């Protein structure tokens, strides 16, 4: 009897192994190794600005706009109006008066102090890195006169520009590209439920010709708009987060302090499309 059991043991093992393989195949992808293309996709991105960059602020960021303290609204940017708590950056707009006008067109009177930052990294879409990803989580004000933005713009000349998130005094955020192939703006508005909660605003900028890019704008993981950006390729870009006031967002603005909060800013580049 023992000899018979020993003799059939190898046969039983083969049957069991074959049965297990069949069951595993029938249960689908859970047991399958990922395709080579999936692995490449996971490894293709190189991180330029990591999600925890605010913890090492001076390594990755500068205060103010690249050109200084003023822009196209009624807020003058100051380092005193920016604060950090963990990995969350807060821009606080405070009311002021008697400080003159903005030194940038359209030279509006300064009614607020607020905050702006720009990245030390200068992205360039080219053959070496034809695809870029810009993403940030933002708690945004949306009252009349508040004008928060997350955008990239030409570092050496304007245009081009891509506005990944721009609230202008309402719960509608705008995705804007200048310039489009016709030489103007491509713009879409997207109503955001509770913009003061955390929402993720992302743009994928991809080279599609010797001069032009395709820009996909995503909000909370959903594709919202696709634009063509003319003459983006080979241009150096500034990356900017700012909390501007009034101007295109209407006036009068808030009579007290208001805030914009940002976390998990990520910038990545890819050598493959």
TrEMBL record:
A Pfam family hit: Glyco_hydro_16
The residues that cross the membrane are none
One GO molecular-function annotation for this sequence? hydrolase activity, hydrolyzing O-glycosyl compounds
Report the source organism: Filimonas effusa
- Report if keyword Metal-binding is assigned: no
Annotated signal sequence range: none
Keyword Hydrolase applies = yes
Keywords, A to Z, come to:
Hydrolase
Q: Which GO terms describe its biological process?
A: glucan catabolic process
- Listed InterPro entries: Beta-glucanase-like (IPR000757), ConA-like_dom_sf (IPR013320), Glycosyl_Hydrlase_16 (IPR050546)
- Name-wise, this protein is Glycosyl hydrolase family protein
Q: Which segments constitute the GH16 domain?
A: 43-270
Q: Which family does it belong to?
A: Belongs to the glycosyl hydrolase 16 family.
């Amino acid at each position: 009897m023992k000899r018979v059991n020993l003799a059939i043991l190898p046969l039983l093992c083969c049957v069991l192994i074959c049965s297990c393989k069949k069951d595993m195949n029938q249960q689908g992808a859970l047991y399958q190794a990922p395709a080579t293309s999936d692995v490449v996709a996971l490894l293709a991105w190189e991180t330029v600005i990591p999600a925890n960059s605010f913890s090492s602020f001076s390594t990755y960021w500068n205060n103010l706009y690249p050109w200084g303290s003023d822009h196209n609204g009624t807020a003058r940017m100051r380092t005193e109006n920016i604060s950090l708590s963990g990995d969350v950056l807060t821009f606080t707009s405070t009311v002021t008066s008697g400080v003159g006008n903005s030194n940038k067109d359209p030279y509006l009177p300064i009614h607020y102090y607020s905050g702006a930052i720009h990245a030390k990294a200068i992205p360039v879409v080219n053959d070496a890195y034809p695809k870029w990803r810009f993403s940030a989580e933002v708690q945004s004000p949306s009252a009349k006169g508040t004008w928060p933005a997350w955008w990239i713009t030409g570092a050496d000349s304007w245009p081009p520009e891509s506005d990944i998130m721009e609230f202008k005094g309402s719960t509608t955020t705008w995705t804007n590209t200048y310039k489009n192939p016709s030489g103007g703006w491509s713009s879409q508005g997207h109503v955001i439920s509770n913009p003061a909660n955390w929402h993720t605003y992302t743009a994928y900028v991809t080279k599609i010709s010797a001069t032009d890019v395709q820009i996909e704008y995503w909000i909370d993981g959903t594709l919202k708009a696709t634009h063509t950006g003319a003459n983006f390729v080979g241009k150096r870009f500034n990356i900017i987060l700012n909390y501007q006031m009034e101007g295109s967002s209407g006036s009068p603005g808030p009579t007290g302090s208001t805030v914009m909060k940002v976390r998990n800013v990520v910038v990545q580049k890819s050598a493959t499309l």
